Amino acid sequence: MNLSERQTEIAELIRENGFLSVDALSTRFSVTTQTIRRDLATLCDMGLARRRHGGIEALSDSGNLSYGSRQILERDAKLAIAREVAKHVPNGASLAFSIGTTPEVAAEALMRHERLRIFTNNLNIAMRACANAGFEVNIAGGRLRNNDRDILGAGMEKFLSSYVFDIGIYGVAGVGDDGTLLDFTDEEVRARRLIHQNSRMTFLVLDLSKFSRAAHVRGGHIGEATKVFCNDRPPRRIVDALAESGSELIICASDETP
Q1: CA diameter of the chain
Q2: Start-to-end CA span in the chain (Å)
Q3: What are 39-81's pLDDT values in tens digits?
């Protein structure tokens, strides 16, 4: 998906504010209302928001956004996280990647590494990893979720249970106030938990928006990860929970050139 810089900023503003009027956006960006309406039509066509009289509003939080939509949102934060993750991955390591857009961006940042062995149930990550001829890429078999381009079910579980990985890299849909990790389906939780259980070290990658995002399936705790990579400092209770558990919190600056 190709959005202009203005369209990307509008998408983030909608997510933060819930509703924005055409007139307010026109004033903010110093462009005509016709230009703003074209931007909003693009965002609606991509499933990032929906039209409402006089403007545009965020979609309901009752379910997850489409994969393509999530690839766009919080992009700078994900890039900052990915750059930092790459510094903590040695050449020759075996890596298990979960589903999700932040793990995908982290995988992209590793393309200059050497001799990595990639294990994943995420087709996007597998295809990107294949671009490095020196990588060994292994992917789960089973039922493919078309929109998310990932593989879940019994085949995925057998695959992720068959290896011990040096590093497991996983994301999450949301984090509860007490540090509980949340996802949208039991299968998503199962995949993440299997990666955690079968990895010598685990990297949880998430942007700050995940601490205010609702999801309803519980599975694991933020303090179980070896290292937690975030673009900004989480809420105080989370920071305290990480300190108590011994997990390393790594704040990833976004002012570095990719």
Answers
A1: 57
A2: 19
A3: 888 888 777 778 888 888 876 554 445 555 555 566 788 999 9
Residue with token string 């996802």: 183
Q: Look at the alpha carbons of 78, 58, 124, 151 in this order and tell me if their dihedral is positive or negative.
A: positive
Instruction: Using DSSP, state whether 42 is helix, strand or coil.
Output: helix
Main-chain dihedrals φ then ψ at residue 122, nearest 5 degrees: -110, 110
Q: Of the candidates 170, 167, 166, which has an alpha carbon nearest to the alpha carbon of residue 181?
A: 170
Q: What tokens does 22 get?
A: 């055409």
Question: Do the strands 143-145 and 136-139 form a parallel or antiparallel pair, or are they unpaired?
Answer: unpaired
Q: Which of 137, 128, 98 is nearest to 110 (CA)?
A: 128
124, 97 contact by CB (below 8 A):
no
H-type alpha helices, the chain: 5-17, 22-29, 33-45, 67-72, 75-87, 101-108, 123-129, 154-160, 186-197, 236-245
Q: What is the reported pTM?
A: 0.75
